[in-house]
From TrEMBL:
Gene3D superfamilies: HUPs. This is UspA domain-containing protein. It comes from Syncephalastrum racemosum (Filamentous fungus). InterPro entries: Rossmann-like_a/b/a_fold, Universal_stress_UspA, UspA. Residues 2-155 form the UspA domain. It comes from the Eukaryota.
Length: 163
């Protein structure tokens, strides 16, 4: 039995990677599968749930309440998405469990994968250009260089990318 971690970030490339893994029968019914997503609360405090926002004036209490509300909403959305993926796998007679991680995506996934001693990690690739990759970082690249287990990076074919 293999233990497999699937990293999922709710993006369209991540969804297509998940679909590719299913269609190519990479996962086996006897595998112990975990599907993980990461909520970065630090980024949420600055960026906001729906993208970059301008600073708003208000009391510290209001800002704290707003922050915790955003975190709770994002965690609920993430859990709902993970549960849908688990159900999708169940239709293929593959059992999986959801896992919500917190922090920087690359670091949280490396820490969790090493802690749980997964046999393989599966991650999608957004295909960022050189500059975006340097400024934003590449989770898949970080996993490949820092994990002590095989990492399957599912890269989009050029003819399926959406511009």
């Amino acid at each position: 039995m293999r233990s497999v971690l699937i990293a999922y970030d709710h993006s369209e490339p991540s969804r297509r990677s998940f679909d590719w893994v299913l269609s190519h029968e990479v996962l086996l019914p006897q595998d112990a599968i975990t599907i993980a997503t990461v909520v970065n609360e630090d980024l949420l405090a600055v960026e906001g749930m729906y993208g970059w926002e301008t600073a708003t004036m208000g009391t510290a209490e209001w800002m704290a309440d707003d922050y915790y509300k955003r975190v709770n909403e994002l965690e609920q959305l993430a859990n709902n998405a993970l549960n849908k993926l688990v159900l999708t796998l169940e239709t293929k007679n593959i059992k999986a469990r959801p896992k919500l991680l917190k922090g920087d995506a690359a670091e949280a996934l490396v820490h969790y994968a090493e802690q749980e001693k997964f046999d393989m990690v599966i991650v999608g690739c957004r295909g960022l250009g050189f500059l975006k990759r340097k400024f934003m970082g590449s989770v898949s690249e970080h996993l490949v260089h820092n994990l002590n287990c095989p990492v399957l990076v599912v890269k989009e074919r050029n003819d399926t990318k959406q511009d």
